[in-house]
Model the fold of this input.
Amino acid sequence: MCKSGGLAHLFDRWCACERAANVRLRLATNAALKPGKGNAGVLARMCGPEPDITAGLTVMAADVARQMLKIRWKQPYPNIPETPECKIADIPIPEGFLDKVMQFLAVLEISSKPPHREKITDVNIQSLLVPAVEELKLVNVDLENTYRAIVDRIERANRDESDRSQLAVYIADPSRVRHSTQLQQRIGRRRITRDIIRREIVFTTVQLPTFPRGQAPVVAPGGATLRRKLRRGRVPSDEVAFAERLRSAWYTTWAERRSGLAGDENDLLNLSTDVLDMAFDCRRHARAQVADGSDFGIKMNDLLAERLKVDALPSTPPFQLNHLHLRGLAYQLCDECHFFFSEPFDTDEEAS
Done:
């Protein structure tokens, strides 16, 4: 772990992340850890915020520090200081470096019992992916394909592939040569965010129910404006009632699927924009298919039912939806006065 550079590699990355409190470190190895004094087994028990062994920690940290300093002679780790080459026992430890190493050991976990290669996929799916899917309240997730997609995405990030396709812009950027800028760009390329993981989730072809199973249907608040607009568009009363049901289906689904994190509003804005774009497209086609001055609301509603499909959206929804949920969102946007099923009118006057 020391002589081959594993700990030095982790230490350098930890320092590059400015030793932030939310950074966790784990070194996993299939090799047996020697249990004797001063060996890897003892080091593993000294690591973490609540170590099993505390006696001799300073001596162990000094040994690890000197091993890192020795590795620095041959490998360019920018966060490990350079020292003169000499016998390892005589390597001088720079001021403050030992304290950093002890802080490093306090956040490090060393695991020597990872699953075997042929079993690691199954173990990770059950211990990591299944709880995550349950916490996100997702259904009909293809667990194996999702796991492989996430692993592939992490592998691409680990390769640190920089994007210099816009070469002229890259050359003209004077900040590209700054070490801090390069470091932030590198961290950005290697970072796996919530949205990136969500895009890698693979769903099965099982149709999602319009209302969640095992829950009493919830009636969405509002709806008066939608009813006035559909009535002005000459949409039949039974289809108006169905529109209200779909709006409630969307209301229930959004309340259940939203994560409660900051990204929810952007997710909703993007999805709403796609739905509005298709609603306006349906309105243009509806107007073109009826005589000038005629009511086009019925035709527009028919086109919404025909064209507003999940696979027709220009971008992937933030969570699994069916076609009826999208129509429910469209009716909700209509109730919020984002579009009409007729020429625009004062909905408050219509009520009176």
About this structure: The two ends are 79 Å apart (CA to CA). The mean pLDDT is 85. The longest helix spans residues 263-288.
